[in-house]
From TrEMBL:
<dbReference type="GO" id="GO:0005829">
    <property type="term" value="C:cytosol"/>
</dbReference>
<dbReference type="InterPro" id="IPR003682">
    <property type="entry name" value="rRNA_ssu_MeTfrase_G"/>
</dbReference>
<keyword id="KW-0808">Transferase</keyword>
<keyword id="KW-0949">S-adenosyl-L-methionine</keyword>
<keyword id="KW-0698">rRNA processing</keyword>
<dbReference type="InterPro" id="IPR029063">
    <property type="entry name" value="SAM-dependent_MTases_sf"/>
</dbReference>
<feature type="binding site">
    <location>
        <position position="143"/>
    </location>
    <ligand>
        <name>S-adenosyl-L-methionine</name>
    </ligand>
</feature>
<comment type="similarity">
    <text>Belongs to the methyltransferase superfamily. RNA methyltransferase RsmG family.</text>
</comment>
<comment type="function">
    <text>Specifically methylates the N7 position of guanine in position 527 of 16S rRNA.</text>
</comment>
<feature type="binding site">
    <location>
        <position position="75"/>
    </location>
    <ligand>
        <name>S-adenosyl-L-methionine</name>
    </ligand>
</feature>
<feature type="binding site">
    <location>
        <position position="80"/>
    </location>
    <ligand>
        <name>S-adenosyl-L-methionine</name>
    </ligand>
</feature>
<dbReference type="Pfam" id="PF02527">
    <property type="entry name" value="GidB"/>
</dbReference>
<feature type="binding site">
    <location>
        <begin position="129"/>
        <end position="130"/>
    </location>
    <ligand>
        <name>S-adenosyl-L-methionine</name>
    </ligand>
</feature>
<keyword id="KW-0489">Methyltransferase</keyword>
<keyword id="KW-0963">Cytoplasm</keyword>
<dbReference type="GO" id="GO:0070043">
    <property type="term" value="F:rRNA (guanine-N7-)-methyltransferase activity"/>
</dbReference>
<protein>
    <recommendedName>
        <fullName>Ribosomal RNA small subunit methyltransferase G</fullName>
        <ecNumber>2.1.1.170</ecNumber>
    </recommendedName>
</protein>
Amino acid sequence: MNRSETCLILRERLGVSRETTDRLEAYVALLTKWTRKINLISANTVEHVWARHILDSAQLWTAAPRSARKWLDMGSGGGLPGVVIGIIAAELRPDLEVVLLESDIRKGVFLQTCARELDLNAQILIDRIESAAPQSADVVSARALAPLVRLLDFADRHGHDGTVCLFPKGRTYREELTEAKRFWHVACKAVPSQTDPASVLLEIGDYKRV
């Protein structure tokens, strides 16, 4: 799936304008350029960046509650999904506060560059998830960061009673969910991924320690 096909899908599913898809194209240019210097995405996925990373990240938008006021992306790295969410929010939900939390200084500088050059309402926190000030976020996301049981520990620190967690997971998600349920009561919905038949998006609306 190329840029044109992905942008068409985003316009149809999300109702975004050409301005937003142009911003996404500018982000892809930054991501590709910086990946040559630091490890933001795997080199073998650069050719398929629109489907593998942009559309895969954008699918989280439709799962988030419209009432959300603050979105925290943990371990944001190359901005997937955080920068993509910030770009969509700039048009559809300009009041949504997007916070990108990343411990790696070089990646944090990249995220700051994206926020500045793409004119995003995004706050960049360069800190460890375990030590950053609790964010009390309405939505917490993380992509390719840690096992589910660990992600729930992080979400517990940075969420609140009504927080919705959105975690893309691969083919081992059932095993991760089984392990997590040893420590957490989890109300979870596994939504098939729009980009990979072997993957899902875990939507977790209720989680409490056992």
